[in-house]
Amino acid sequence: MGEWLTRLTLITIGFIIGIVTLEFGLNIFAPSPSIPKRMFLEPDRYIGYKGIHNVEGKWKEGKIESYVKMNSLGFRDDEYGYGKNEGVFRIVVLGDSFTLGLQVELDKTYHSILEDKLNSSGNGTFEVINLGLDGFSTGQQYLAFKHYGLKYQPDLVILAFFIRNDVRENSLWLSSLLAGKSIDQFKRHHPFFVLNDGKLEELPFEIEVSRSNRNTEQNRGVRSLPARFFPNIYYSLREWAGETPWLADSLWKLGIKKSGPVNQSELRKNRIRNRILMDSNVYAEEYTPEWRDAWEVTKALILKLAQELEMDKIKFLVVVIPDEREFRPDRWDRILKEYPYLKHFKFDLRKPEHILSGFLEANNISYLLLRPEFEKYSQETGKDLHFHYSYDNHWNTNGHELAARLIYEKLRDDELVPVTKQNIID
Q: What is the percentage of the chain residues whose pLDDT exceeds 70?
């Protein structure tokens, strides 16, 4: 019995030493393992979800990677206190994945570049605060400002509106359709708004169980022990499992990987295909009643935000982000070639831009269309503004830099910020 116990003890000690050595070795010699996008998020009772406060790590999607750190409020930006020093001009930026900017380092995001440009002008101190997160609808952006952004005492709010999917994401009906569910079956894990007798009504939602379980104290203390103490081993195994079916099966049985041995690549392709087909409808020459309703909800949300900002004497700018197909004919041709089903329908790639700009002008809301200058830059330089991967086509550093410059010039020229042309540093 004593000899058996001695052997078991030696085996256990050897195993522990091996694990520690492997973790140490991976930390030094192996590329840093990536943390899945959703692992940066946790439930939020106001906006459905936001970043886990102070979480950090490397994010990777195929060939794109960056280092991500959330601040104490759960947004990807530097730390800003709610208190504002005298003489500081504050800008709060609301948006979605383009504003989150996971595809580039934080200092290369358009809002960080904008802050640098403003502070280089010699016209005082500026703080540009990012409240954008992946997948945020206009409704979530409004609520993010209401519950978090207003506390920063901003002088100006920028709403970054992405034409291709923001209208769809504001629609409960279209979101349920994309999920393959009826409205009754569709589980709402973040806020949606509907119009009742012309008035916006916020619908209740359920905290997503998977996110909630992932970040409970029990989960952090027990299930995520490997991730907390051996992060290089843990995330490397998860990363390798995505490409190795037998490993995925084994890790699933051990509880390290949440899904079984399914073809993740095919699932991703199907999701991308469904989104492309759905989102192309925003460019349709003729809208269905559901799309018309989605536009009305979208307009009502923007107007509500504008009216509340006006009451608080806060300036407002809507920045309209185009999809690449709007200014790159070759990208639209490629989509039609890849999805020939779309050739059966008629599209007007300027329609959503015209609808939105007409609405904003009618309500005296300042706005900036990025599309004309994006098109000019693309034609004159031949440089890409987006990544061109099947899994990601967000802005690259060129896109962020150009967006920052255009926003900067708009703020300066329209006197939305206290900056003069004489002192500007482009």
A: 74
